Amino acid sequence: MFRGAILSGATGVCLSHNHPSGDPAPSTADIRVTHGLKEAARILDIDLVDHVIVGDVNADPLKVGYFSFHQQGLL
Fold first, then answer.
1. Could you read off the pLDDT of 16-47 as tens digits, one per residue?
2. Is residue 73 part of a domain?
3. Which domain holds residue 50?
4. What order of strands is seen across the sheet that includes strand 66-68?
5. Above 90 in pLDDT, residue 51?
6. Which secondary structure element, helix H or strand E, spans residue 49, and what is its range?
7. What's this model's pTM, rounded to 2 decimal places?
8. How many domains does the chain have?
């Protein structure tokens, strides 16, 4: 996951994925994996800037269409 960042000398990365349901709310697995990736990034001295889950604005209870771990204080 961090190979490109290491090879390019990046100091930070932003991850994203989508949910087929359209609801961008993070699952328990999304939260667990994000925290694991944050720890891996820390070990590599790379900043995990954000992890964004992209969804459908119409399926999102908040009507924004995405979930940002950074904006929600989860990073």
1. 999 999 999 999 999 999 999 999 999 999 99
2. no
3. 3-68
4. 12-18, 47-54, 66-68
5. yes
6. strand 47-54
7. 0.90
8. 1
